[in-house]
From TrEMBL:
It is found in: Cell junction, Tight junction; Cell membrane. Residues 1-24 form the signal peptide. Its main location: other. This is Claudin. The keyword Signal applies. The keyword Cell membrane applies. Claudins function as major constituents of the tight junction complexes that regulate the permeability of epithelia. The chain crosses the membrane at residues 84-105, 117-141, 161-182.
Length: 219
C-alpha cells in the first residue's frame, strides 16, 4: 500500500512536470528586457522565447513575431528547441506507460509486466528531466554571460524570464518522479532475490523409514 501511494505521488509530480514542460516550451518569456522611458506610457517589455519574440506595452498592446528562420538562430536556441520538444515527447510517453504499470490501476497484466512498465516509465521521466534541464541551464548561462559582458550595451541585456524558471521546476519534478518509479520497482525485485519463496522439502530418510516400517507390517 505504501509503494502504491508513493507511485501515485510520483505520478502527480510527473503530471505537473509534463504541463510545466509544455508551458515552458511554448512561453515567449525565456529572457526579458524592460525598457522604461521618461514617461510611463512609453514603458515596454521585450520578451524572447524559443519560437517567437513578443513586445508588451504599458498601454495594454501586445505584439508577437514568429521566428521563421531556423538557421539564423543562435546554436543554444536551436538546441533548446530540439531538447525541449524531446522532453515533452518523452514525458508524455512516461505518463502513458506508468498509467499501465502503476499498482493502483487494473491495466498491464500480471505483477511482473506492470513492474517492467513502471520501470520503463520512470526511465522516460528521467530522460525527459535531463532533456529539459540541459537547455534551461545553457540558456541561463548565455543570458548571464551577455549580462556581465561590458561590451554589450545596457539596452541589449536581458534577464531570465518565467519560462526558464518553469523549465527548471518541471525538470526537477520529472527527475524526482522518475527516480521514485525506478527505485520502487528495483526494491521490489531486490526483495524477491534476497528472500526467495520458501519451498517445503521432505527428507528422503524419513520417507525410506516409513516405507520400511510399512513393509515389515505386511510380512
Amino acid at each position: 500500500m505504501a509503494s502504491a501511494s508513493l507511485q501515485f505521488f510520483a505520478f502527480i509530480l510527473a503530471l505537473f512536470g509534463v504541463f510545466g514542460d509544455i508551458a515552458a516550451t511554448l512561453l515567449p518569456n525565456w529572457k526579458v528586457n524592460a525598457d522604461v522611458g521618461s514617461n510611463i506610457i512609453t514603458a515596454i517589455t521585450q520578451m524572447q522565447g524559443l519560437w517567437m519574440d513578443c513586445t508588451w506595452y504599458s498601454t495594454g498592446m501586445f505584439s508577437c513575431t514568429l521566428k521563421y528562420s531556423i538557421l539564423s538562430l543562435p546554436v543554444y536556441i536551436q538546441a533548446a528547441r530540439t531538447t525541449m520538444v524531446l522532453s515533452c515527447i518523452l514525458s508524455a510517453f512516461g505518463i502513458c506507460i506508468t498509467t499501465v504499470g502503476m499498482k493502483c490501476t487494473k491495466l498491464g497484466g500480471d505483477t511482473d509486466s506492470k513492474n517492467h512498465a513502471c520501470f520503463a516509465g520512470g526511465v522516460c521521466f528521467i530522460l525527459a528531466g535531463i532533456f529539459g534541464l540541459v537547455p534551461t541551464c545553457w540558456y541561463t548561462r548565455e543570458i548571464i554571460s551577455n549580462f556581465l559582458d561590458q561590451t554589450i550595451p545596457e539596452s541589449s541585456k536581458h534577464e531570465p524570464g518565467a519560462a526558464v524558471y518553469t523549465g527548471f521546476i518541471s525538470a526537477g519534478f520529472l527527475l524526482i518522479a522518475g527516480v521514485i518509479f525506478c527505485s520502487s520497482c528495483f526494491k521490489r525485485q531486490q526483495g524477491a532475490w534476497i528472500y526467495p519463496p520458501k519451498q517445503h522439502h521432505f527428507p528422503s530418510t524419513e520417507q525410506e523409514s516409513n516405507a520400511g516400517y510399512n513393509l515389515k507390517d505386511y510380512v
